[in-house]
Amino acid sequence: MRSLKKGPYVDPKLLKKISGKRPTEAGVIKTWARRSQIAPEMVGFTFGVHNGKEHLAVLVTEDMVGHRLGEFSLTRKFIRHGGKIQKEIEQKKKESEIAAAKSATATAADATKK
Questions:
Q1: Whether the Cβ atoms of residue 9 and residue 2 lie closer than 8 Å to each other
Q2: Predicted confidence (pLDDT) per residue in 35-48, tens digit
Q3: pLDDT (tens digit, 9 = 90+) per residue, 52-75?
Q4: How far apart, in whole angstroms, are the C-alpha atoms of residue 89 and residue 3?
Q5: Distance (Å, whole) CA 57 – CA 3
Q6: Cα 31 to chain centroid, rounded
Q7: What whole-number distance in Å separates Cα of residue 43 and Cα of residue 89?
Q8: Are 47 and 58 within 8 A, CB to CB?
Q9: What pairs with residue 31 in β-bridges?
Q10: Distance of CA 107 to CAs 93, 94, 96, 112, 113, Å?
């Protein structure tokens, strides 16, 4: 937690990269400064925030102001929890989607007949 009297920390290099540019013409701005807070001047820009392996594109919106860039570029990739129960849940979900699609096509066919 940073003291309020110090103000938000924004990497000076990052501010230098966006100064004098428009968000539309800047493209993706690569950065490793995950600890930088998002300032209002950054809204609209797309940053390539490094997650330790690659740069993930983060489009900055007004809701993100005050947060840190690293919050939007996750460092761990969640795949899924495995196991027998998970497979059963996925199978039931797939069956329900198929049933819903069949019922939708059946109602559409009935509507065209009338």
A1: yes
A2: 999 999 889 999 99
A3: 999 999 999 999 899 999 999 999
A4: 47
A5: 29
A6: 16
A7: 41
A8: yes
A9: 49
A10: 21, 20, 17, 9, 10
Q: Buried (b) or exposed (e) across 102-113, using 16+ Cβ within 10 A?
A: eeeeeeeeeeee
CA 101 to chain centroid: 30
Nearest to 59, CA basis, from 43, 40, 74: 43
Number of C-beta neighbours around residue 73 at 10 A: 20
CB 49 within 8 A of CB 55: yes
DSSP character for 1? -
| Token digits of residue 4 | 């309020």
Locate the DSSP E strands across the chain: 28-31, 46-50, 55-59
Provide the sign of the torsion angle of the four alpha carbons 105, 110, 113, 114, taken in this order: negative
Q: Is the pTM above the cut of 0.70? A: no
